[in-house]
From TrEMBL:
Species in which this protein is naturally found: Profundicola chukchiensis
Pfam families: DivIC
Highest taxon listed in the record's lineage: Bacteria
Residue ranges of coiled coil: 47-74
Keyword Coiled coil applies: yes
Residue ranges crossing the lipid bilayer per the database entry: 15-32
Protein name: Septum formation initiator family protein
Keywords: Coiled coil, Membrane, Transmembrane, Transmembrane helix
Length: 107
């Protein structure tokens, strides 16, 4: 076979109506269809992110549950929580909030 007949053979395959329709179908399914590959890729990425968030929040729930269990065992934990997180105080008592230099925002 000569080089010219090989080129002609590929040219005939590329101009084949079934090849053209098949190629158009593949391009449509990959890029334009409602169930396109690109859409599925984005949805898969969203699923991965949601699973990571789920694991994070499960760990946070576990941590908070442990904290609540500690509070049930020791009533002084309620007072400590109120003082530290909500800056509550007893009567005739002053509260001083000390912030580290690293925690302040500079403008």
């Amino acid at each position: 076979m000569s080089e010219e007949t090989t080129k002609m053979k590929w040219y005939n395959y590329l101009l084949n109506k079934y090849f053209i329709v098949g190629l158009a179908f593949v391009v449509w399914m990959v890029f334009f269809d409602q169930n396109s590959y690109l859409l599925h890729k984005d949805l898969d990425d969203d699923i991965v992110n949601l699973r990571e968030e789920r694991a994070y929040f499960k760990a946070e729930i576990e941590k908070e549950q442990n904290h609540l269990d500690r509070m049930e065992k020791d009533p002084r934990e309620y007072e400590r929580l109120a003082r530290e997180k909500y800056l509550m105080k007893k009567e005739n008592e002053d509260i001083f909030v000390i912030e580290k230099k690293d925690s302040l925002e500079y403008e």
